[in-house]
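BUG: 3D viewer hangs when loading the predicted structure for this chain

Environment: internal workstation, default settings.
Expected: structure renders.
Actual: progress bar stalls at 90%.

Input used:
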Amino acid sequence: MKIKTIFFVIFCSLISCKKQEINNPFVIEIDDKKVELILENEADFLTYDIPTKAELVWTNIELGDAIFIGRGIKLIQNKNSRSYIEINYTSEKSKSDTLEIKISSKDREKDSYEFIGSIKVPVKK
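Structure tokens produced before the viewer hung:
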């Protein structure tokens, strides 16, 4: 009986150690298209009135076909499927503690832009 209990405990321990996929709130995936926001120093929030460097990493989206908008975002450079940006979310006239970055890409078959989704970044004081 003790042997069965020991094997059961070991088995349960191994199952619980299985790698779990972490849901990254700074990633949008639709079909084969993917956009990921990476903040400077891999932070998970912005700070009011402090410029933060960041990257938008585009997968299966041409840089020329991508559009992103959000308050306080400045494009620095597009290079190698990445958009290097600076975000300065000011406290002046701020209505929310969340920056919303809206992402769209061009659908070449329809010759129009389609909304992919939004990345919401918390902002702290």
